[in-house]
Write a structure and sequence with these properties.
The chain is an alpha/beta fold and about 450 residues long. The protein contains 15 helices and 16 strands.
Length: about 450
């Protein structure tokens, strides 16, 4: 851990609050990341103030969310009715409120700015330059990566976002990547300086997500103790590909019916998000079209204490996403001793130890996924061994380790700023054209 910790950091999380319930709307893994790392920072004596956009008139301007963690709800645009795509037009107002909060304090109030996602990076760029402090940025997802692996029916990320991401990459003192794969994407697609990238893996709350009785979990959820269960946890949108799981499960369910055995149960926990909000019943409609509606159980987004039961109740947790910078669900499931069947994309190759704690599937073909799921469920001894290894693997990914890595990144940022004092460095980028792999300079 660095010898000199920052006294107070400003965390910018424009489009989603760490206090929001993950699994619906724009709330997801980033919420968990911001909240859990803030708690760990505060326990180390670093005061954390999180700036996020108010989405309700009932949001208190200041929320003392935990000892050492203050959440500031910033008014920028109407409380409701704004999608994430509408927020670039609100960044000016948001930035003004952030700067105003600092102006009301003594000089040097914040030691560092940490921004999350590109919208926050734009605000963080301005704030860090104004205050003369370092900017550390975590992208969480990258537009060029998402556009290179679009799901059917999904919408390509706009040029505005790619330009905005490039600007933040250019001006940040340090860039935090979840995995070496993401670091490589920052270098190849955004021409990031590899010398200012820190790879810091996210984690899981290992005290909350623990192994436990699958039978008791199923009883709590009203599930048959004798049926095989595969679970999907997350936002329901094309990017997360829950439809791939339903299509893969359908032939297995039908085959069990033909044999007269208990069919597979698919458990879905989450709510519509992104382009999935355009057709919020699409997944339920698909289950009906496939003839498996009676074998699919839908749950609303679950708080951590209830989410544990979902993971424990499942024989396998599926993560079929088209793009994942890491995949927190995979780690949380494994922390509960549940093997994971995941797409071999992004950070999932780090989150899942292929063949030991789960299985990675190359691609999103229905036959591939159906065969992989059938093979996993057929070998109960292998599943049990994977469950034991899964918990051991998950213990490598704690939020305390993530906080240690972030503090080391902060120290690098401070050292870099001390060596090169002055306001935030401007982006020197010549825009020409954009290809499928990102911005071409």
């Amino acid at each position: 851990m660095p010898s000199a910790l920052p006294r107070r950091i400003a965390v910018i999380s424009v489009h989603t609050s760490p206090l929001a319930q993950p699994g619906t709307g724009d709330a997801g893994g980033m919420n968990v990341y911001v909240w859990q790392t803030a708690l760990r920072m505060a326990r180390r004596g670093v005061a954390v103030e999180i700036f996020t956009r108010a989405t309700s008139s009932s949001d208190e301007p200041l929320v003392h969310a935990a000892p050492g963690v203050l959440v500031r709800h910033v008014q920028a645009g109407p409380f409701e009715g704004l999608d994430k795509a509408d927020l670039p037009a609100q960044l000016c107002g948001f930035s003004a409120e952030v700067l105003g909060a600092e102006a009301a304090q003594a000089s040097g109030y914040y030691d560092l700015v940490h921004s999350h996602y590109w919208l926050s990076g734009q605000v963080g760029w301005l704030a860090a330059a104004r205050w003369g402090v370092p900017l550390v940025h975590t992208a969480h997802t990258l537009a060029a990566v998402k556009n290179a692996a679009l799901a059917d029916g999904d919408t390509e990320e706009p040029r505005l976002r790619i330009i905005g991401e490039q600007q933040v990459v250019d001006v940040a003192d340090r860039l935090v990547a979840n995995t070496a794969t993401e670091a490589g994407e920052l270098e190849s697609m955004y021409h990031a300086d590899p010398g200012k990238i820190d790879v810091v893996a996210p984690g899981a709350d290992l005290d909350c997500f623990t192994p436990g009785s699958g039978a008791r979990a199923r009883a709590a959820l009203g599930l048959d103790p004798d049926e095989a269960v595969v679970a999907f946890v997350g936002r329901i949108q094309p990017l997360k590909a829950p439809d791939v799981l339903l299509r893969a499960a359908a032939p297995l369910i039908e085959a069990a019916r033909q044999r007269g055995s208990v069919p597979l149960r698919v458990l879905i926990a989450g709510g519509p998000s992104g382009t999935g909000r355009e057709h919020p019943t699409a997944l339920a409609d698909l289950a009906g079209e496939l003839g498996i509606a009676d074998r699919v159980t839908f749950l609303p987004p679950q708080p951590p204490q209830q989410l544990v039961q979902v993971f424990r109740a499942a024989d396998v947790v599926a993560v079929p996403s088209y793009s994942e910078s890491f995949g927190l669900v995979a780690i949380e499931a494994q922390a509960c001793g549940t093997p994971v069947l995941a797409a071999d994309v992004g950070g999932l190759g780090v989150a899942v130890a292929d063949g030991r704690t789960g299985v990675l599937v190359d691609g999103h073909g229905v036959v591939q996924w159906s065969n992989a799921l059938e093979k996993l469920l057929a070998d109960r001894d292998r599943l049990a061994a994977m469950g034991i290894a899964a918990r051991e693997h998950a213990e490598r990914f704690s939020w305390d380790r993530t906080a240690d890595g972030l503090l080391a990144s902060y120290a690098h940022a401070v050292e870099s700023r001390a060596a090169h004092p002055g306001p935030g460095r401007p982006a020197r980028v010549r825009w020409r054209r954009r290809g499928r792999q990102g911005v071409q300079l």
